[in-house]
Amino acid sequence: MKIALGVTGGIAAYKAAEIVRQLQDRDIRVQVVMTQAAQEFIRPLTFAALSGEKVITGMFSPGEEKSANIDSAIEHIAVAQSIDALVVAPATADILAHFAQGIASDFLTTLYLATTAPVVVAPAMNVNMWNHPATQSNLEILRKRGVKIVEPGAGYLACGMTGAGRLAENEAIVAAVLEALGASQNLAAETVLITAGPTREKIDPVRYLTNRSSGRMGYALAEAALRRGARVLLVSGPTSITPPGAAELTRIESAEEMRDAVLRVLPQASIVIKTAAVSDYQPKTAAGQKIKRKGPMTLELEATPDILKELSARKTSQILAGFAAETENVLENARQKLLAKNLDLIVVNDVSREGVGFDSDRNAVTIITRDDVVEVPETTKWEVAQRVLDQIVRLRQQRKAAVKI
Fold first, then answer.
1. Are strands 301-303 and 281-283 parallel, antiparallel or unpaired?
2. Minimal CB count within 10 Å: which of 130, 166, 390, 399?
3. What pLDDT is recorded for position 63?
4. Domain assignment present for 81
5. CA pair distance 147, 157, nearest whole angstrom
6. Which domain holds residue 254?
């Protein structure tokens, strides 16, 4: 996901740098748009270095005013169409008035009119400016239009006065942004251990046994958990996709390496989600040199460690979720695995179906717990990840309620 963060002219402008970092921790791309006044308080270079994105400082890039560069002139439209939310923090009384009255006088106000994405504003100003009827009237107009207002805090202000008008805490602003993006913070107190991708079991220096897992499902779960505020420990087999940047990544090759990595970090985790497609078998002996082709060959295999079973034996208060890829007797086999491996939840899909599961961005699954069955029709793996986390949150809440009783 990507947001535009508007920074306007006020002493609180420096706090926007930390907002950028906190959003990036949840794997959200941030493009900063600065008003001219904001640049008097903090330099664009700061945001460029933090975000890794171009910082927009005006309707035209330097030197383009005279050439009337078309691409620059319509950049606000491109940005408006590419973002999932527009956030303004701090938002001055001036910018609130421009938004409320539909005055497009610079890039940020033009972007506001051009975007259909959710809008979140966090006002910051002098207490008298905040309480003025004109400001309150503009705020009411924006609320009626669906703009989310993150109310300012009260206290000692930079102007020397005391009262309402201080920029809300960064955590409150980030929470409002995530809510606008449809990502609640219901995993904020959790550390989630996720395994993803395939394993490779060595035959010789150039060959290995593996499977068709792409890692997309596990990476979608990792990103979704980050957006919900979790700390994510990601143990990943070989994949060609980019992992969420804020996840604590451990790369592995074999089932043995995955077992060792998972058990090493298990004590830190409150939730464990095993999406990895771990090879069930490995060559009993790997050749030290490339095996030459000489006709038929027999390969002796032995079972790899059953990581999920070992986790179920070691778990304490953790929620343990597994995945199952089946081609027949899908629900029956999944229920057997749920009970045999003492899981709290299992997600099963029929990988014999075309277009879902392996090598696809889409999936169709059934989520099974001890007391519930939830069907998730074909959709994106991102949406599947959200439904899986919803069920895990439900289980966690039930367990906490039981402890209180």
1. antiparallel
2. 399
3. 45
4. yes
5. 25
6. 191-290+297-404
Structure tokens at 309: 């079973």
Contacts 24+ apart (CB under 8 A), 391-395: 391/345, 391/367, 392/271, 392/273, 392/319, 392/321, 392/345, 393/186, 393/187, 395/319, 395/344, 395/345, 395/369
Choosing from 78, 159, 206, 313, which is the catalytic residue?
159
Residue 373: CB partners within 8 Å, gap ≥ 6? 331, 366, 367
Same domain, 155 and 228: no
Please confirm, yes or no, whether 159 is among the known catalytic residues. yes
What CA–CA distance (Å, rounded) separates 363 from 105?
Answer: 46
| pLDDT tens figures, 336-347 | 999 999 999 999
Tokens 């300012």 sit at which residue? 152
- State how beta strands 362-369 and 345-350 pair: antiparallel
Indicate whether 165 and 68 sit together in one domain. Answer: yes
**Structure confidence at residue 69 (pLDDT):** 46
The verdict on 198 and 89 lying in the same domain is no
Residue 186 in domain? no
What confidence tens digit (pLDDT) does each residue in 19-76 have? 999 898 888 899 999 999 999 999 999 999 999 999 999 887 554 444 444 454 466 6
Please report, for residues 120, 142, 258, 267, 312, the alpha-carbon distance to residue 124 in angstroms, rounded to integers and kept in the order given: 13, 16, 49, 42, 50
From 180, 200, 221, give the residue that closes a domain: 180
Determine the distance from the C-alpha atom of residue 274 to the mean position of all C-alpha atoms in its chain, rounded to a whole number: 18
